[in-house]
Design a protein that fits this description.
- The protein has an 8-stranded mixed β-sheet with strand order 4-1-5-6-7-8-11-12. A 4-stranded parallel β-sheet has the order 13-14-15-16, with helices on both faces. It has a two-stranded antiparallel ribbon with strand order 2-3.
- The N and C termini lie far apart (about 45 Å).
- Helix content is about 25%, strand content about 25%.
- Helix 3 crosses helix 4 and helix 4 packs parallel to helix 9.
- The protein is elongated, with a radius of gyration of 21 Å.
- It is α/β, with parallel strands linked by helices and about 325 residues long.
- The longest helix is centred in the N-terminal third of the chain and has 15 residues.
- It folds into 2 domains: about 190 residues, 3-Layer(aba) Sandwich (Rossmann fold), CATH 3.40.50.1170; about 100 residues, Rossmann fold (3-Layer(aba) Sandwich).
- Bound molecules: D-aspartic acid.
- The site of D-aspartic acid has 10 residues, from loops.
């Protein structure tokens, strides 16, 4: 019996071709055209289940799209006989889709996201190699129970830690502070780490959750605006190990008092939020104000987790 694999396509650069009139690359390739990049031996040993979810740049995906994608992946991943699910996706928001799947799906079969940094009609298109690597990972028994992973440029990254760290480079995806959990070397898939997963019950995504990135000397007017709107949640990418300018603290206290969930992440690429300082606006001061710390998640992922948590209330 051949292996049953699900391929879900969503668009992104991996599916793009340049327009003949010089108008730039746009998503065009569907599942059949993407599968055609795979070698015959791989194509033939698999029973393919194929879903063309959408064909969009990933910056165009809405929260509703993310939620529907989660449903589709969860549905396939839970079916008997399915060895793994491969999702082709734009790289811009891949880390968020991957993290949502990882955080909310119990499935033990591999869930593998991949994409490309160069479009299909561009010299050195990396989509074919990335797709082949993703298929190999999805078929690998060691990938089971690893949660959702991102496979790009010969590396396997855990959804929780992976981030797009470069705008154009082929090795755009990294896991700052952690490194990849495995690699694809030729036909071999090698895992060097096992991932400790956190899985949350999810009913919906609460959309009214906002992300603010702090910069030197920034005033707190945007935070005040969100408090005045009585939003449900605010994630602040604070400085270093969790520090804000002292003039932000009263507004943060006010938000917490108004039952707005305030999460502090860091604008640093790696590391947990923690410090030992005693000055205003540092970790202890924020802790006393009643914020929640993001525990190593970056701002966009902390926002998603807060959306899941508030959506489950
Ligand atoms: N086109 C962008 C996207 O859809 C980038 C990419 O896929 O690499 O996210």
């Amino acid at each position: 019996m051949s292996d049953e694999l699900v391929l879900i396509t969503t668009g992104g650069t991996i599916a793009m071709r340049a327009q003949p009139d010089g108008g730039g690359a746009v998503p065009e390739l569907g599942p059949d055209e993407l599968r055609a990049f795979l070698p015959a031996d791989i194509l033939d040993r698999i029973t393919w289940r194929v879903e063309a979810f959408c064909n969009m740049p990933s910056a165009h995906l809405t929260l509703d799209d993310l939620w529907k994608l989660r449903h589709m992946v969860g549905d396939w991943a839970g079916r008997a006989g399915v060895r793994g699910v491969v999702i082709t996706h734009g790289t811009d928001t891949m880390e968020e889709s991957a993290y949502l799947l990882d955080l909310t799906l119990l499935a033990s079969c591999p869930i593998v996201l991949t994409g490309a940094m160069r479009y299909a009609s561009e010299a050195g298109y990396d989509g074919a190699a990335n797709l082949l690597d993703a298929v190999r990972v999805a078929l690998c028994p060691d990938a089971q129970k690893q949660g959702a992973v991102i496979v790009m440029n010969g590396e396997i990254h855990a959804a929780r830690y992976a981030s797009k760290m470069h705008t154009l480079a082929l090795d755009a995806f990294q896991s700052p502070g952690w490194g990849p959990i495995g690699r694809i070397e030729g036909t071999h898939v090698i895992f060097s780490h096992r991932v400790e997963r956190e899985i949350l019950p999810a009913r919906r995504l609460e959309p009214d959750v906002h992300l603010i990135k702090l910069a030197a000397g920034m005033d707190e007017s945007y935070l005040q605006h969100l408090i005045a709107r009585s939003v449900r949640g605010i994630v602040i990418e604070a400085m270093g190990g969790g520090r804000v300018p002292p003039w932000w603290v009263p507004a943060i206290r006010e938000a917490v008092e108004k039952d707005i969930a305030v999460v502090i992440a860091s604008r640093c690429a790696a590391g947990r939020v923690y410090d030992t300082y005693g000055f205003p606006g540092a970790y202890r001061d924020l802790e006393a104000a009643g914020v929640i710390f993001a525990n190593g998640l970056n701002g966009p992922k902390a926002r998603l987790k807060l959306m899941v948590l508030l959506g489950a209330r």
